[in-house]
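Private note to self, pasted from the team thread so I don't lose it. Backbone tokens:
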């Protein structure tokens, strides 16, 4: 099952994001700050992280930066969701390693769409069936094949998702 880590110091926000993510079939684990999140990163294979910026103990920028430099889940997609709407704050989010930067309150339908596009298959599924091929039967399966959204030539996933967000 795909596991998403929701990192926010506000319990109500974590519960709100959890309910949205569970609607699309994702398992959710939670952390109140970046330190707790770092502990979760080493304990769980993650498919996606939703991260607030302003938190006590360790802020979201620091958490994402450390996530990217670490060994566990370093390539996990990250959506930063924050009240910080200034372009300089958004730039800091991308510099830290966020794939998407959203300003609260995030539209629930948009969040579902982005999470569905960005979630990566669980590590154990990728190991058992790389590229959608069942190792035991050699049958091709689209169920576990990595899915990529159609992107215009020369554009990466982040560019594609940013184009979707601007529509």
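Design output:
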């Amino acid at each position: 099952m795909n596991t998403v880590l929701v990192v926010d110091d506000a319990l109500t926000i974590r519960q709100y994001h959890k309910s949205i993510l569970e609607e699309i079939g994702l398992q959710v684990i939670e952390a109140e700050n970046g330190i707790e999140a770092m502990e979760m990163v080493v304990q769980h294979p993650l498919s996606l992280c939703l991260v607030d910026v302003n938190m006590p103990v360790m802020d979201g920028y620091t958490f994402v930066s450390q996530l990217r430099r670490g060994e566990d889940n370093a390539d996990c997609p990250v959506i930063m969701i924050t009240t910080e709407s200034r372009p300089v704050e958004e730039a800091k989010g991308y510099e830290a390693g966020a794939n998407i930067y959203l300003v609260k309150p995030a539209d629930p339908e948009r969040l579902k769409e982005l999470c569905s596009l960005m979630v990566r298959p669980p590590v154990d599924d990728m190991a058992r069936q790389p590229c959608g091929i069942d190792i035991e039967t050699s049958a091709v399966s689209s169920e576990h094949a990595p899915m990529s959204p159609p992107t215009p030539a020369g554009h990466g996933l982040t560019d594609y998702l940013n184009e979707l967000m601007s529509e």
